[in-house]
Amino acid sequence: MDNLKELISYRQMLVNTVRRDLRSRYKGSFLGFLWTFINPLLQLIVYSIVFPYLLRVQQENYPMFLFVALLPWIFFTSSVQGATTSITAGANLVKKIYFPRIILPLSVVCTNLMNYIYGLVIVFAALLLTGVHLTLNVFWLPIIILIEFIFIVGLAFILSALYVKFRDLEHIVGVVTFVWFYLTPIVFPISIFPEHIAQLIRYNPMVPIIESFRNVLLYGTQPNWGLLAYSVLVGVALLLIGVLIFTKSEKTFAEDL
Q1: Segment among 51-60, 65-74, 186-195 with least mean pLDDT
Q2: Is the dihedral of CA 14, 3, 75, 219 positive or negative?
Q3: pLDDT digit string (tens) for 214-248?
């Protein structure tokens, strides 16, 4: 509770950091903020060619099947990888002034959250153009985003704190997220696996989150609340563990940096 109160008192710093990151991300580039939309669209084009035509993945409206899952995955990986190095990247601030260090990884996640929300403009437009009819279940979308946000923030706190002492973690995270991508039904439906393997894959907490995005956006149905509850439990557990690890580790950040 003390950490939460302190974070609330420094909320303007968090807001300003997110604004600065959003403005500086594409500063000086010709297309600027349009890269927020171009990057996932390019990935969509590549995957839409490779998987249905070269690897013979059979899935109705495959581009949208892929797109509604790809953007939350980009939100996940960009946040986790960026947050891992956030403390060392802000070393000058950490050494010179006092502020809740937890703002650094949190600001990375919030910045990527804003990018994902902006990307939803393209998602909704693409869904309508491809004949997908949105239903009232789309209003469950903020809850699903919140669940993913909690899960990501928990990982961000843990990894950012550990990276200060274990610099190999950046490379490990890159490898793990690469493997994790193919253990999550993003480019293919989970139904392609034998049932006993599919049951194991469902222990991946990102699976209910990705499938929930598809349910509300692509299929017009409610999320599977039973499966999604598992992701909630994992996310909350990671968040609590992350706060404990971060709070214990931040006392020596200045020395370790």
Answers
A1: 51-60
A2: negative
A3: 999 999 999 999 999 999 999 999 999 999 999 99
CA distance 168 to 188: 31
Kindly provide the residue ranges of all beta strands, DSSP E only, lying in the chain, ordered along the sequence. Answer: none
Domain ranges of the chain: 2-256
Measured CA to CA in angstroms, residue 35 lies from 9, 22, 24, 30, 91 at distances of 33, 12, 13, 10, 28
- Which residues are CB-neighbours of 121 under 8 A, at least 6 positions away? 37
> Is 165 in contact with 246 (CB distance < 8 Å)?
no
Q: Which of 227, 222, 64, 65 is nearest to 137 (CA)?
A: 222
Q: Rounded CA gap, 231 and 227, in Å?
A: 7
Token reading at 173:
């995270």
Query: What element of type H or E holds 17?
Result: helix 11-25
Q: Which two tokens stand for residue 255?
A: 């020395």
pLDDT for 147-166, tens place per residue?
999 999 999 999 999 999 88
How far apart, in whole angstroms, are the C-alpha atoms of residue 107 and residue 121? 22
Q: What percent of the chain has pLDDT over 70?
A: 89
